[in-house]
Specification:
This protein has twelve helices and five strands. It has about 260 residues and is of the alpha+beta class. The chain has two domains: about 1-180, 2-Layer Sandwich (Beta-Lactamase), CATH 3.30.450; about 200-260, Orthogonal Bundle (Arc Repressor Mutant, subunit A). Strands 2-1-5-4-3 form a five-stranded antiparallel sheet, with helices on both faces. A hairpin with a 5-residue loop joins strand 1 and strand 2 (about 55-60). The chain starts with 7 loop residues before the first helix and ends with a helix.
Length: about 260
């Protein structure tokens, strides 16, 4: 494995990364270097803020794909993204496999079907770097055709220090050219309140908690573990909240929430 990183191509890629003088060039050099470590099918570099919507620092999606996936995502559904939740945690890994950080029913959730499945990613590795007290930079490295092998995962873990240092450099270069006051913290507060208060006029506090976990892709058993209650109790609450909201499925629950977000 290490022979790959003794190659002239790798050293030229690192040299280019060191020489890069602006955020765009550094992003391009970083993605090229990662491409020498593993074959991948696209990347996206996101800044996750605790008090504002995420920002897209760099991506390799085609324009139509960026509009379809990123613009819709930034309009509010990011609140349901396990990666967003992970990035805002005080304790988090430096690198992780996305599938290992998702709730147990995430892949059958409506969020996954509408915002993840259509990207056609089979696998995803994520690099996480705290860049301030209220912001974490996340680099998504995706694979469409097949899963990353153990050897490829090991190579990505091996280059993590280089990737992390480059991410910090990119953030400093990119953020210096941004007007932080232009970040729409008002929109983020409205969206966050919409999520926290969803159904409050009809649901009890416990039913709201369960609704939020259902929207994020947790199963009945997972919700029971999260809230330290019996699965049967969760089922009762779930039946009650569905009846109060006038719905019969989690698909309808998700649609109801997205409609509420749109009004926010």
């Amino acid at each position: 494995m290490r022979a790959r990183f003794d190659s002239p191509e790798w050293h030229r890629a690192v040299a280019k990364l060191v020489r890069s003088g602006d955020a765009q060039a550094t992003c391009d050099a970083l993605i090229a270097a990662i491409g020498l470590a593993v074959r991948h099918d696209g990347t996206c570099l996101l800044a996750f803020h605790s008090d504002a919507p995420p920002e897209v620092v760099h991506h390799t999606l085609e324009p139509a794909g960026a509009e379809h996936y990123l613009d819709r995502y930034l309009a509010g559904p990011y609140l349901l993204d396990p990666l967003y939740q992970l990035a805002l945690r005080d304790s988090k890994p430096l690198i992780c496999r996305f599938r290992d950080e998702t709730p147990d029913r995430f892949r059958s959730s409506q969020y996954y079907r509408r915002y993840c499945e259509q990207t056609h990613l089979r696998d995803e590795m994520d690099f996480l770097r705290d860049v301030s007290d209220d912001c974490t930079l996340v680099l998504v490295v995706g694979r469409r055709e097949k899963m990353f092998t153990k050897a490829e995962l090991d190579r990505l873990r091996l280059v993590e220090p280089v990737v992390s240092a480059a991410m910090l450099n990119i953030w400093e270069l990119w953020n210096a050219g941004q007007d932080s006051s232009a970040r729409n913290d008002t929109l983020h507060r409205r969206l966050t309140l919409c999520f926290q208060n969803f159904g409050e006029s009809r649901l009890t506090a416990r039913e709201q908690e369960i609704t939020q976990l259902l929207l994020r892709g947790h199963s009945v058993k997972s919700i029971a573990r999260e809230l330290d209650i019996a699965p049967g109790t969760v089922m009762v609450h779930k039946r009650n909240l569905f009846a109060k909201l006038g719905i019969t499925s989690q698909n309808e629950l998700f649609s109801l929430f997205i409609d509420e977000l749109s009004r926010s």
